[in-house]
Design brief:
- This protein is mainly α.
- The protein has one domain (49-206).
- The protein has 7 helices and no strands.
- The protein has helices spanning 60-69, 74-94, 102-114, 120-136, 141-155, 162-179, 185-206.
Length: 221
């Protein structure tokens, strides 16, 4: 069972691999909301069809995640989201942008908050920088979706509902990385569904039975 980590330090050091290029960090900070616009850049022929997120609020996997999250504390869900993003989505970002440490820094900041080492205002700049990293990855659908998934995971220390964004963006990152951005929508949807099921299974393992004081969640969807 994956133990939740509301107490104790979470080690989130990024894997070191050879640098190929450095990604700039300038520009306006990205917000903490889900983004549903269409990408542009390297693949102009896909710009009008490739989605930023996969799965939907009606997907069985998303519904299952919401039901589990409603039984857990924010600390438990946030610890799970940070760990899952660290293990599954950060490597997808680093595969093409190994010199950009902003997503890893966001997870590290969230981990310090979970360990009680910093307050939210101290963690927030690193999280906003991760969202900016996603904006900077425009034209790289896998890296952008992965950065947004990481950003949503880190943002869950602010609001539990951001952990759901982890699933929407993470499903897209995995689908595009697995099948390629040129694959058809049905292929992407199938892979996204499998990733959603993996997320559900992981959260089920991390969930605390009969957790005291579960978070009050308003999904607004």
């Amino acid at each position: 069972m994956i133990a939740p980590r509301p107490r104790g330090r979470i080690l989130l050091a990024p894997t070191r691999i050879p640098c190929r290029r450095l990604v700039g960090a300038s520009g306006r900070a990205h917000g903490l909301q889900l983004v549903a616009d269409s990408p542009a850049g390297r693949e102009p022929d896909l710009a009008k069809t490739l989605r930023k997120t996969l799965l939907s609020v009606d997907s069985p996997e998303i519904v299952a995640l919401m039901r589990i999250m409603e039984t857990q504390s924010k600390a438990t869900v946030a610890a799970w989201a940070v760990t899952y993003a660290q293990d599954h989505y950060l490597p997808l970002y680093g595969a093409t942008r190994p010199c950009d440490t902003r997503p890893a820094a966001a997870l590290a900041a969230a981990g310090r908050w979970l360990a009680g080492e910093v307050k939210l205002p101290q963690a927030k700049p690193a999280i906003l920088a991760c969202h900016q990293a996603a904006r900077d990855a425009e034209g790289d659908p896998v890296a952008q979706a992965a950065a947004r998934a990481v950003g949503q995971a880190a943002s869950s220390i602010h609001s539990l509902t951001h952990a759901l964004g982890l699933a929407f963006y993470g499903a897209a990152a995995v689908a595009y990385a697995t099948a390629g951005v040129a694959a058809d929508a049905a292929t992407h949807a199938t892979i996204a569904s499998k990733e959603g099921a993996r997320l559900v299974a992981s959260l089920q393992q991390a969930a605390v039975p009969n957790e005291q004081n579960p978070a009050r969640v308003n999904w607004n969807c």
